[in-house]
Design a protein that fits this description.
Mean pLDDT of chain A: 94
Low-confidence stretches of chain A: 190-195
Order of helices and strands of chain A: EEEEEEHHHEHHEEH
Number of strands of chain A: 9
Oligomer: homodimer
Strand content of chain A: 15-25%
Helix content of chain A: 40-55%
Chain lengths: 195, 195
DNA sequence: CGAGATATTGACTAGGCTCAATTGAAGTGG
DNA sequence: CCACTTCAATTGAGCCTAGTCAATATCTCG
């Protein structure tokens, strides 16, 4: 665990190697995975508002991060307007990303959610130079379910259903996309999740 | 409509009078209300990332906004570090707020969602000097349902159920909270939504 | 007053959850 | 190296919550 909800905020982190998840907890105890982070992505942005992180960051495998102290960031932003703009953009894009997840949780059915999730992963893999068709998941079915607002059983069943439909090859946490177009078509008429 | 998803971004807006909603749309056409904004709150923050708004802002009644051109904001932030920090805080808090909504959509049952929504509204009303027990909703049942990931029929039924349970008095869009503690208790053991 | 939008209520259905059993994978220690 | 434990994943059966479809009621406003 890199930081816990409630910890005082003084840095954001960039993933250098590995993979992490971000978890938010309800007062009642229920918790939900709010994001997965891969190499090159930033986490901890939610801490700047109140000076405390309100999610916890947990590594899903051996992971190295780059610590970016907030004081340093603020200074850099002050000195270099272009850096300042980048920072705004990063924060704003995190808002957009979350809005997409809200859309997923609020309007999609289970199959659509998993398809959107896999397609999103696929494009992120591709952006990092990996094959967009061979996904190596680092998280459990439970994590995926939590992120998608489903139970782990439903996620497992959906993998089975997609496999039977010829869309995927599933071998534990290795998922191969065999019919990319077909997977996209699961998203109702014909759409894809940007990020 | 103040701005539409896709419009080029050049300003954020502060509500001076009235009430607005923010709507995101899926490529497939399905749409969802992603936030409601009251007096004093900021909207349009999601546009900074890509230079285009990715949600639409729609007024729910006669509304006046204060236009805050981004160029001006960036300049002020550069000149006054305290302003810069406030801006980060605002952006970050929007992220936190969205995470709470994701928690709501991902983990709560219908009753819990509506209770959380009403309690959140209640505290926002209180912060603006209104009674926390007399909520004047400006949005339709459909808007509420969309925001909470429910159908308008379910929202209507829940209002009825809460009324019968003595928690609320419901008169169209005027909702009076008659049993604040009871409403809080709907949130499983005993919790409340911060914002 | 009438038209259109909004809200309520009912009956039925279905998608995803719960509970439960089983299998499989991975790590531990003798 | 293999039994043993533990954790993760799969699969099944039955149920329940919220969605769908449909009929009315109520409000708002020209």
């Amino acid at each position: 665990m890199l930081f816990k909800a409630g910890d005082p905020f003084h840095a954001i982190y960039a993933i250098r190697r590995g993979c992490m998840k971000s978890v938010v907890t309800r007062k009642g105890g229920a918790e939900q995975v709010s994001a997965f982070y891969m190499v090159g992505e930033l986490l901890g942005l939610d801490g700047m508002g109140r000076g405390r992180y309100d999610s916890s960051a947990v590594a899903l495998e051996d992971t190295e991060v780059c610590v970016l102290p907030f004081s340093l960031i603020a200074q850099l932003a002050h000195e270099r307007p272009s850096f300042q703009h980048r920072l705004y953009a990063v924060l704003s894009r995190e808002i957009s990303r979350n809005q997409n997840v809200m859309l997923l949780l609020g309007t999609m059915r289970a199959e659509e959610r998993l398809a959107a999730f896999l397609l999103s992963l696929s494009s992120r893999f591709a952006r990092r130079g990996h094959s967009p068709f061979e996904l190596s998941l680092r998280m459990t079915r439970d994590d995926i379910g939590s992120y998608l607002g489903l139970t782990l059983e439903t996620v497992s069943r959906l993998f089975g259903r997609f496999r039977n439909a010829g869309l995927l090859e599933v071998d534990q946490r290795i998922v191969r996309i065999r019919d990319y177009a077909g997977l996209k078509a699961v998203l109702s008429p014909d759409e894809a999740l940007a990020d």
